[in-house]
Amino acid sequence: MITPPTPPTDRQPATPIVVLELRVQNHPGAMARITALFADGGFNLEAILCVPLPGGIESRMLLLMNDADRLVHVERELARLPDVLAVRRRADLGPEYFEWMAEMGAGAHGHHR
Predict the structure, then answer these.
(1) Euclidean distance between CA atoms 40 and 37, whole angstroms
(2) Rg (CA), the chain
(3) Is the pTM of this model over 0.85?
């Protein structure tokens, strides 16, 4: 089993970076409504990872954002969406995880940077 990288403990980004994990209903339009909330609020999502959970009724989304100052507002707005079943912060994940996933996907499909 390949394991993702561990975020460095000495990392001090210029802009606070946060990973949110969402458990969402897996049906058409759910991701569009979630990403529209960010766009309408003027937030930029640096990365999105979405995978269906066993059974296919729900999905897990990981969102990388660089606006930790407004995180409480984002969490509150996400919780209001009917498609969002749970929201939690993932302090154990950082941009390295998304970079690792991108490299894994590129390697699996023969793409190179």
Answers:
(1) 5
(2) 15
(3) no
Give the dihedral sign, CA 33/39/44/46. positive
pLDDT class for 112, splitting at 50, 70, 90? very low
Whether residue 77 lies inside any domain: the answer is yes
Domain count, the chain: 1
CATH code where residue 38 lies:
3.30.70.260
What is the full DSSP assignment across 14-67? SS--EEEEEEEE-STTHHHHHHHHHHHTT--EEEEEEEEPTTSSEEEEEEEES-
Residues 8-13: what's their mean pLDDT?
52
Is residue 4 in a domain? no
What's the number of CA atoms in the CB half-sphere (13 Å) around residue 41? Answer: 20
12 assigned to some structural domain: no
Residue 5 belongs to a domain: no
What's the CA gap between 99 and 68, in Å, rounded? 20
